[in-house]
Amino acid sequence: MQFELTREYIDILKTIIENKNEAEAIALMKELHPADIAEIYDELNIEEAKFLYLLLDGDTAADVLAELEDDDRDRFLKILPLEVIAKKFIDRMDSDDAADVIGSLSEEQREGILSHIDDIEQAGDIVDLLHYDEDTAGGLMAKEMVIVNENWTVLTCLRELSRQAEDIDEIYYVYVVDDDGVLKGTLSLKKMILSSTSAKISNIYQPDAMSVRTEESDEVVARIMEKYDLIAIPVVDSIGRLMGRITIDDVVDVIRDEAEKDYQLASGISEDVESNDSIWLQTRARLPWLLIGLMGGICSALVISVHENDLGINPAMAFFIPLITAMGGNVGVQSSAIIVQGIANKSLGMESTFSRLMRELMGAFVNGITCSSIVFLYNSLFSDSYALTISVSAALFSVIIFASIFGTLIPLSLHKIKIDPALATGPFVTTLNDIVGLLIYLSIGAYFYGL
Amino acid sequence: MQFELTREYIDILKTIIENKNEAEAIALMKELHPADIAEIYDELNIEEAKFLYLLLDGDTAADVLAELEDDDRDRFLKILPLEVIAKKFIDRMDSDDAADVIGSLSEEQREGILSHIDDIEQAGDIVDLLHYDEDTAGGLMAKEMVIVNENWTVLTCLRELSRQAEDIDEIYYVYVVDDDGVLKGTLSLKKMILSSTSAKISNIYQPDAMSVRTEESDEVVARIMEKYDLIAIPVVDSIGRLMGRITIDDVVDVIRDEAEKDYQLASGISEDVESNDSIWLQTRARLPWLLIGLMGGICSALVISVHENDLGINPAMAFFIPLITAMGGNVGVQSSAIIVQGIANKSLGMESTFSRLMRELMGAFVNGITCSSIVFLYNSLFSDSYALTISVSAALFSVIIFASIFGTLIPLSLHKIKIDPALATGPFVTTLNDIVGLLIYLSIGAYFYGL
């Protein structure tokens, strides 16, 4: 039942487009979901995509536009006249998608498009939605919802529902408001169907519905919907008036983005880039981190140069520099990843920093003893320098302990001062670990060699 | 409106529990959502939790049990008699949650509980669900759904709905089947409300509903629901008979877990551990990766020891070892993280490996030139060895290029042979990068010093 995009499929499609075979193209597109068509567009050049686009019926065309990747969409909107964008797309899209599309355009294009929208209510909704920041509840919400007054009966409701329902794809809840438009609660369609038509809404609705304020951040909205297993959540203004609703499918993207952002930060990528983004964009996201690493490397060089004489006498000390720095990095990243994920999915609980650190230290102790014993054994067998054998193992143990302390405390501290703790798992901390690790290693080495 | 768990709240609650103040405890719990109560339980000891638990009414108790973390739940089930578990919880839970709970128990406990369930239909559903692997569509699905026959009228449907609806919290779709139970399509409640009561279902339902097979993996289910913005998806067996349905809230967990797993693997953590897991569990998840890093460190030591004489003559060569290995690691992790995320969120598209590699190389070229120029400048100013200045910059450039090739090709290759590509961003590749980086650096160094 699901569509699987293959190289062959694209090739066949490209041939059809090349031959300008409209009938066949329409037949192919008819079988597909707008999300699949959007996926196909990603693989076509702009002329091919345009040919297909003009064959789609209005609603499908609008749905496909909403599903397109941002850069594909921008590419596309550039070649279409504003009037076509307004009438063929924006007018038919859900208000939240329409606001997203228009929000990414220039002021001038925006006004041009808005002036061409026939449905004045839709235009008003879009202008309202454009006021909110993209990453707040207001920026996520849509205006399409069924609203009923608490004083109505189920029968009035059902009539209102058929009137309002036209514009709305799916209805999961009906929102109940008072005469001032203040949200009172929700009413499920199931409840409405199962109640007598003369029942008063105020007697059957579910009061105390979960809701969020328009200015709430999208990550908080995602967390609430995830925690309480909500399919949709109403959005209210500062005095409780119902402003819109957010559905779970919009929030799924937020949840994925949030989880991915942590991973990207940990990998030293500071913007949301994808494999097929431009080199300029990728460089901008990646080079700054590399420069931090570079500065760290130069600091490391300075640290080692202080011990130049030791190395001149005992070059074998240099052999284990990569081992020490790599292990410090690995342990630090492990420790901080666990904290970062705990913060992200709220599983950290109430445990105090101190007891968390103690537990982390016990783990580090086990890992440190194991690893430094192995290296001790290795050096006992293959090295004839007792000082080296002791230095490397003692330094490795200390580095593992220190890295786990850093790895635990840095993300917790960043979180406390409201900086994204995922930064702590990135090159920044790895670099810091390198330098501290070297300091420890070379100091211990100098001490033992000096004995 | 949302509940925020604070240290103070827990302290107040603990005092109430200590004083065995049942009335106050009941009043506090009444205001909370089961998900909030589950969060509170996480902070209490088992005796305190038990005290609260026995005060909850049946449905709330069952909901709380479903929301509890796995280890909290296991701890809890251990102290309750099987009959209480069966009657107070399992009987009142949705079939998917009930199967999850029972699935985590021993064979013996399972049979004991099943024999105590009064509702034979619920017991049958649970036994059916236990057959499926946890990470398949069958393992995710629940049996609670409203099923109607295509030959019925809307009126029959509404009657059936009120009969079936009792057991089901929320209804988003009604599933339409033929006389053999084969899924024909879906019918939204909205459509049902808006149609005449004498309309035949076969004329108004939506055919060709998206569905998944019971054996489909949970990650594929998540991807389909996410792509097509589905709130619920029906699950069918190999001949198309309707077996159950999966709702988006169960899939949100899969999406989050999947994104987190990549991050954990990249951080060198091989099992799903959390900050408050036992030291033994954490060590098991982390030590193997550290040992890989340790082996890599020993290999690095061997590589450097081959150049012992060079280092004896030019100890300054050792200064830049951490810089070279760190930069190789950083670049490799960046490149592979982009590929791994592209694979995970299907944004890679159809681009060939070759053209992807070319683009990555161009980016590496820009980053490589920038970084090695900076180091060149630094060494020109602060080092009096021309050979060192050239060696470090040339090696850094080469290492950046090689690391980006590795970082791109290794995850793509792993993915091709069906190994999780996220492994490639972990310590494994960082370690490999260290060794190759050192080989390049020391070879180039030996060459230039030899000039």
Automatic annotation (TrEMBL), chains A, B:
The chain crosses the membrane at residues 287-307, 319-340, 361-380, 386-410, 422-449. GO terms for cellular component: plasma membrane. GO terms for molecular function: magnesium ion transmembrane transporter activity; metal ion binding. Residues 205-261 form the CBS domain. It is found in: Cell membrane; Membrane. It comes from the Bacteria. It is a multi-pass membrane protein. Gene3D superfamilies: CBS-domain, MgtE N-terminal domain-like, SLC41 divalent cation transporters, integral membrane domain. The keyword Membrane applies. SUPFAM superfamilies: CBS-domain pair (SSF54631), MgtE membrane domain-like (SSF161093), MgtE N-terminal domain-like (SSF158791). InterPro entries: CBS_dom, CBS_dom_sf, Mg_transptr_MgtE_intracell_dom, MgtE_N_sf, MgtE_transporter, SLC41_membr_dom, SLC41_membr_dom_sf. Pfam families: CBS (PF00571), MgtE (PF01769), MgtE_N (PF03448). Homodimer. Belongs to the SLC41A transporter family. This is Magnesium transporter MgtE. The gene is mgtE.
